[in-house]
Amino acid sequence: MTKRVRTAVIPAAGLGTRFLPATKSQPKEMLTVVDRPAIQWVVEEAVAAGIDDVLIITSPTKKGVEDHFDRMTELETLLEAKGKVEMLQSVRQITEMATFHFTRQGAPFGLGHAVSMAARHVRDEPFAVLLPDELLPDGGATLRRMIEECEESGSSVISLFEVDGPEISNYGCAGFSSRDGDVVEIDQIVEKPAYENAPSNLKVTGRYVFTPDIFDKLDVTEPGKGGEIQLTDAMAMLIGDPGLRGLVIKDAGYDAGQKLDWLRANVELSLDDPVVGSQVADMIREIMQGRGLS
Question: Are residues 218 and 290 both part of a single domain?
């Protein structure tokens, strides 16, 4: 039986150039989705899946991420003095969700390098990796399922999503040798294959549960384009040694690193919000009618 997964690693060192100028001085992970930063949605997902230890890989420009998950005594004292109980609870809840740790990736050496920086913290335990650009607001159900599969099988598990036609050329793609329900045994991983050469229509999405074997693979992964160490290359070495499985998911959530999907996340998650959802729906109807679109 594999050890319990208790740690989530969140690589958050990227520059966020797609959202310039908004991210010129603000980390992209701190862009608001409804009422909280995008990275908080990801942390809440991990906690909902049963994780209580979070390591965030940052960079020298991401102090705002570290501050968000730290205590702010002056603010808490002010809210308490003014009797703003709900606000005080919401602020304290951020720091109490899990035990937070931070380490900095000094230079942009790629996702694989960022994950490798977790080795000293994780040691010999399996762990989850969640990309903060990808929001999966399902109450941790997908990640919980991946963790269960890893703990039962002893293999690393990655999330996969079916896409249509040539779209697969934009993503990492996983081929498989067998399938049992929503779990596949991966036998090939290709980064952005030509459509005609793609081994399947399953794209790799931003949720992973790795056994510590991934660190040995990353240690011998040669830098690729731009001197970056690709996580995909290390995952390919896991195939057959000790094995790599995929969980085929029905909803990939939102890519908050893309402007249109970030806007979609704000709209749809606002509609789901129990406090403002009905007001947002009324506002959207009013806007549509005012523009003659309804």
Answer: no
